[in-house]
Write a structure and sequence with these properties.
Length: 197
């Protein structure tokens, strides 16, 4: 059993909340997995390996990749076991997407798009920038939806458009390869109509 606080003691102000949350999550996981092992429909035990693999595949889909499951310690033997159970090398975004149960958030930073194209934008208020770029945003969203449908996503997909260069993008899941694939596809598929009023 691995304790996330074993390598170095944490400062008293942060140690308790982190340890308490880790213990809560650990306890909840132990309880539900114990219940699964004890579940015997028709008097026969379930295939727990298949059950656990299915759970890990769905979790990987929800966070966007198998790599995210082992991000805390990717070179350990436990990481290799988890990768194998969760689909391993075959767990591409295309393979994972149909099993996703959590919504997908795709961020569109218009200033990043402008920087890639070399188009200069005046320093207008955010509302004017959004008005000028609404066609691009709509086309980008349509491309995201189309790629999501091709991947087999059945969960809500939201595009967060950021048009103000001073706005810090909201946090999203790290290493969400499914969201990244949707964004990359939409960036390639959406024609540059940013300067049209």
């Amino acid at each position: 059993m691995t304790d996330p606080n074993h390598s170095a003691p944490l400062a008293p102000a942060t140690a308790t909340p982190i340890r308490d949350r880790w213990a809560e999550l650990h306890g909840a996981a132990v309880n539900i997995l114990t219940e699964a092992v004890r579940y015997e429909p028709g008097g026969e035990p379930i295939d727990f390996g298949e059950f656990l693999a299915s759970v890990l595949e769905t979790v990987a889909a929800n966070v966007g990749s198998v790599a995210r499951l082992v991000a805390g310690r990717s070179n350990s033997k436990e990481a290799a076991w988890i990768q194998g159970l969760a689909g391993g090398e075959s767990a591409t975004p295309e393979w994972l997407a149909p099993g996703r149960t959590a919504p997908v958030i795709v961020q569109l930073n218009l200033w990043d798009v402008l920087g890639r194209t070399g188009i200069d934008e005046p320093s207008d208020p955010t509302t004017q920038i959004l008005h000028r770029h609404q066609r691009y945003i709509a086309a980008f969203e349509a491309a995201v939806v189309a790629e999501g449908a091709r991947l087999g996503l059945t969960v809500p997909v939201t595009v967060r458009a950021i048009a103000d260069p001073d706005t810090t993008p909201p946090a999203t899941d790290k290493a969400d390869a499914i969201a990244d694939q949707l964004r990359d596809y939409a960036m390639e598929a959406t024609p540059m109509i940013l300067t049209e009023d």
